Amino acid sequence: MKKINKSENKNTIILFSEKPILNPSEVKEYPKLSANYSIFLNTLLYSNWIEILSELKEKFEIIYFLSISDKDYLPRYFLSEDTNVIFYDPIKMVNFSDYLLKHALNNNSKTIILFSNSIGLSKKDFNRIFNLLQSDEPSVVIGKSDRDKIIFVCVTGVDKELIDPLLKFNREFSRYLNAISSKDIFINTLDNFLSINDFEDFKKLYIELSKKESLSYCSKKMHESFNDLFIEYKDLLNV
């Protein structure tokens, strides 16, 4: 895997998997989905981001975070040899911000921390998000789902007060806002994305991917792969 060059001053996109997604003995099953199909769903969501982000790697620094427990279960085709990937140990990640500063981030760049169990951002959206981040005053851009789950934050540098509450408060939007409310900061919020956490979200994913506009953030090839999964649960997806 490629060694990360923290001296580069590119804006950074981190794709972060906050739990094991591939290891059968540790993966958390989605309600009503088997362990194997939970892994399949995790793989599809992560692969969809890889496909999108691979076309942005010349412009942005792309870093992939996966749990160390997934390392031995990583499919050979999953990440290319020139990929920036960090296998992290949750036990050693006391503070998210300290870990990022030590292992990944340039403290001067703008950074999007994107959670892998999400979908809905197209390639062009990343430029828009970085442009929304104010350069002349402290600010943060937050993307959330319709169920108030944070799917990304965009910050400048490694601001502990903006980064650490993400995992501490389980990416819950209202609790996160409360945690950063004491800061004198401009907050820009974007919504209508999906965070896939349970079967209700899975059904919403099925509905959203049936819409033509979903092709902007999920290619035809990825649609076909998702359809293979949806077919297995077609009786439960009659909505």
Helix content: 25-40%
Spatial arrangement of strands, main beta sheet = 3-2-1-4-7-6-8-5
At the first level of CATH, the class is: Alpha Beta
Mean pLDDT: 90
Commentary on this structure:
By secondary structure, the chain is of the alpha/beta class. It has one domain: Spore Coat Polysaccharide Biosynthesis Protein SpsA, Chain A, CATH 3.90.550.10. It is 33% helix and 21% strand. An eight-stranded mixed β-sheet has the order 3-2-1-4-7-6-8-5, sandwiched between helices. Strand 1, helix 1 and strand 2 form a beta-alpha-beta unit. The longest helix has 20 residues. It is globular. It starts with 11 loop residues before the first strand and ends in a 7-residue tail after the last helix. The mean pLDDT is 90.
Helices and strands in order:
Layout: E1 12-16, H1 35-54, E2 61-67, E3 84-88, H2 96-103, E4 110-115, E5 118-119, H3 123-132, E6 139-145, E7 150-156, H4 160-168, H5 173-180, E8 186-195, H6 199-209, H7 220-232
Parallel strand pairs: 1-2, 1-4, 2-3, 6-8
Antiparallel strand pairs: 4-7, 5-8, 6-7
Helix pairs in contact: 1-7
Observed structural traits:
239 residues, alpha/beta, Spore Coat Polysaccharide Biosynthesis Protein SpsA, Chain A, eight-stranded mixed β-sheet, 7 helices, 8 strands, 21% strand, globular
Brief synopsis:
The protein has 239 residues and is an alpha/beta fold. The protein has helices spanning 35-54, 96-103, 123-132, 160-168, 173-180, 199-209, 220-232; strands at residues 12-16, 61-67, 84-88, 110-115, 118-119, 139-145, 150-156, 186-195. The chain has one domain (12-198): Spore Coat Polysaccharide Biosynthesis Protein SpsA, Chain A (Alpha-Beta Complex), CATH 3.90.550.10.
